Amino acid sequence: MKIKTFASAAALFLASFTAQAAVLTFDDIAGQYGYGTPGPSMSLTANSLSYTEQGYTLTLYTPNSYAYNTHIGDVTYDQSFNWHDGDLNAYGAYVKLTRNDGAAFDLSSFDYSLFYGSILTISAPGYSDITIGNSGHYAFTYAGVSEVTFSGPGNYGSIDNLVLADAATAEVPEPGSIALLLAGLGLAGAVRRRKA
Predict the structure, then answer these.
(1) pLDDT of residue 185
(2) Which runs of consecutive H residues, i.e. helices, occur in the chain?
(3) Which InterPro entries match (predicted)?
(4) Are residues 48 and 65 in the same domain?
(5) Residue 128: left if φ>0, alpha if ψ -120 to 50, beta else—which one?
(6) What range does the domain containing 13 cover?
């Protein structure tokens, strides 16, 4: 076996041990929910409306408006995540993304569609705020964050295909697997020396 071939196989082996990724597609959101009636995968409290998917929760907080004046989802953007506090979020509504188990996570990317032409602000602890004013696909380098907040006065856009990874439980090769890999590399080196 050639060293280059074995090295390539080893690289693929190690690369397979990465954090588990999740893509939130919001396929349960097939209409407009809120106004006192949460939809699938949702829960409603006095001042919040939450949606859960794949171990993550997006919670719409409405600090200056009653939750029954709000909604998640809209017929304009079926199967995507958008929110509204009754007056185009003029009451200071915002959405907070967290893991259900409280663990840290990475945010890689999402798609954003603008509806009423306003700016979306994305915030995370330890990172500078990012503002988005156009529809498109956006990549991020948020790593090991406990939460991400989406806000913006007058914002009424739509988030979809949110790519997240669990930063706390990245898979690590077991010692036995690493020992086998090293033994194979040693054997390949010995064979090469013998042929030389």
Answers:
(1) 55
(2) 3-15, 175-195
(3) Ice-binding_C
(4) yes
(5) beta
(6) 1-17+172-196
